[in-house]
Design goal:
By secondary structure, this protein is α/β, with parallel strands linked by helices. It folds into two domains: 1-190, 3-Layer(aba) Sandwich (Rossmann fold), CATH 3.40.50.300; 192-292, STAS domain (Transcription Regulator spoIIAA, 2-Layer Sandwich). It has helices spanning 14-17, 26-42, 56-65, 70-75, 96-112, 137-149, 167-175, 184-188, 215-227, 245-256, 271-279, and strands spanning 18-23, 46-51, 79-83, 118-123, 154-161, 179-180, 193-197, 203-210, 233-243, 264-267, 287-290. Helix 10 links the parallel strand 9 (233-243) and strand 10. Helix 5 (96-112) runs parallel beside helix 6 (137-149) and helix 9 (215-227) packs parallel to helix 10 (245-256). The longest helix is centred in the first third of the chain and has 17 residues, at 26-42. The model is unreliable at 1-9 (pLDDT under 50).
């Protein structure tokens, strides 16, 4: 479903401005980098790069090699190259709430310097390491469509190196974006269970089948439901085959933890989901079935 919400920059919707970019070679990485940075500089936007696996000096070197005046952009403050340690991992590890707050600060900072939009590339390779909070990366990717990109004049490409991420983890992370560059989603496969933000209303869509092997996806969906500030929140199950009891229970706990005036509205639940609720009616508290 296309994102029909108001745009924030250059006529692009929120869905178009949060993009998963996967690559499997240094040349692919460089091509995406140059395309993104050149477009931002040409538009008069501020561009930032959050490096992790890549040395920050290499970023500016590659840009210069491809004819981008990186040195001049750095001097005037239009281009900033920093690290994941100073952004995603500032503090003792990764915390989605802190990072969501950082986006607001970054956009405000760019605006204060006269830029109408902020463009950022973030290397996500830190998500493969044993860092406190790294297991919340999928939850974060799901949440920021509604909590960041629908609110702020921000364009961000999330860089995922296929050489570093396990295939199933990368497939789930790509599915959490409504836009993937150069067929990134197809390049990383389709997860057994995927969780994706809805483009046309606050909420999320679960697709596929969920069991033990996809527990992390179900947990991220439940955490996203619990954290969402939306008062009218939809969980679309139209493309869901089934969830095991543990996954339904986790989602139910998240729903029960929301304010009584903000239940999770379940759309088009499959028969298997209904059977679980019939067997365990206590799980239905906080869930409300609605029509399309």
């Amino acid at each position: 479903m296309r994102d029909t919400r108001p745009t924030s920059s250059g006529g692009e919707t929120a869905a178009a401005r949060h993009v998963a970019v996967s690559y499997s070679s240094d040349d692919e990485w460089a091509g995406h980098l140059v395309t993104f940075v050149r477009a931002g500089l040409d538009r008069g936007e501020q561009v930032q790069y959050f490096a992790d696996a890549t040395d920050p000096d290499r970023v500016t070197h590659v840009l210069t090699e491809h004819g981008v005046d990186a040195a001049g952009a750095l001097r005037r403050g239009q281009l900033l190259v920093t690290t994941a340690g100073e952004t995603y991992l500032a503090g003792s590890g990764f915390d989605p709430e802190s990072m969501i707050g950082l986006w607001q600060q970054a956009v405000d900072g760019a605006a204060a310097e006269g830029y109408r939009n902020l463009r950022v590339i973030g290397e996500m390779s830190w998500g493969t390491r044993r860092i406190p909070g790294a297991d919340r990366l999928l939850e974060y990717e799901m949440r920021i469509h509604h909590e960041v990109f629908e609110r702020l004049p921000l364009t961000a490409w999330c860089f995922y190196d296929r050489r570093l991420f396990p295939g199933d983890a990368l497939a789930a992370l790509a599915a959490a974006h409504l836009n993937c560059a150069d067929g990134a989603a197809g390049g990383v496969g389709v997860p057994a269970l995927s969780a994706t933000p809805l483009a046309d209303r606050p909420g999320f869509r679960l697709s596929g089948a969920g069991g033990y092997e996809s527990r992390r996806v179900a947990a991220a969906a439940a955490a996203s439901l619990a954290a969402s500030p939306a008062t009218d929140l939809v969980l679309d199950l139209s493309d869901l085959d089934h969830l095991d009891v543990a996954a339904v229970a986790e989602i139910a706990r998240a729903a029960r933890g929301r304010p009584a005036t903000s239940p999770v509205r379940i759309l088009n639940a499959p028969p298997a989901f209904h059977r679980v609720l019939e067997l365990f009616p206590e799980l239905g508290a906080g869930l409300e079935e609605v029509g399309a």
